[in-house]
Amino acid sequence: MGDLAVWLRDNVQADDGPEVDAWTLVRTALAAGDHLEAALENKPLPDSLVVKIVRSTWDFIAQGDYSLLKSAIKTETIFPLRTLFTGLFRSTNRNIHVVTTNYDRVAEYAADSGGYIHHTGFLPGYLRRADGAENLIFKQGANLARTVTVWKVHGSLDWFSDPHGGVMSLPMTSELPDGLVPLIVTPGVSKYQRTHDEPFRSAIQGADRVLSAATAFICIGYGFRDGHIHPKLMTRCHVHDVPILVVARTLTPEAKDFLKNNAGRHYLALENHDDGTMVYNRDNPDGIVVTGGKYWELPALNELIGF
């Protein structure tokens, strides 16, 4: 998020008048040390400036995503998430649900590289139209195919609104197709208003359903800063004592508050420490250092689990 803040600061060109006034408030907040979402929240941003922020955000993230795609095509990238999927599929379960606030397609690439079906709520094809994820069933022979369903609650790099207001998902390159508007909810910019629109509403409703039914959670790099996303998760853990694993380089204050007040009894949280990994659980609510491995990193965590 810090790199994106720098990119937006340097690349969004506000026009004179209301745009400049509003963007000056954002830049001042960033200079004062606010993280990007806090800097963008509760600012009177003109719609024209929001369009520029969305477009610039797409440009920044699409560069890295397209580079990752090219690397994946050449099999130069090993996806730790693929290893996690493979381990989780060593069961009778045929579907893994991923709820993500990210726009990138790492989860999709990881699923593809493992030979699994991925589904993001759109029909298959080149010109993909929205369809509820539960309406599609994939089979390999007589058996259900192992499928990774990705609930992208803040949109995706390959989701667009066409000139007629229609919603579609398209194979993408590093450049934005002419006439299309990216369907991504950028940090702090009309987040809660846009999530009432399609396809975000369907993605959030689907995410709520799977979170409400989950029997375990793995949270990777999640900051617990999206109040419209994780209430179902918190209820499952706090009321129903569903086990949860939380891993991040640095746990946010919101994540630590969740662990303290809503994680229930069966939680394990890992974050970086200079001497190894800081571990939090019911017996060590203030954390204890485990020396040696950086187990908050997914490759080391997969190895520790035995995946």
TrEMBL record:
<dbReference type="Pfam" id="PF13289">
    <property type="entry name" value="SIR2_2"/>
</dbReference>
<protein>
    <recommendedName>
        <fullName>SIR2-like domain-containing protein</fullName>
    </recommendedName>
</protein>
<dbReference type="InterPro" id="IPR029035">
    <property type="entry name" value="DHS-like_NAD/FAD-binding_dom"/>
</dbReference>
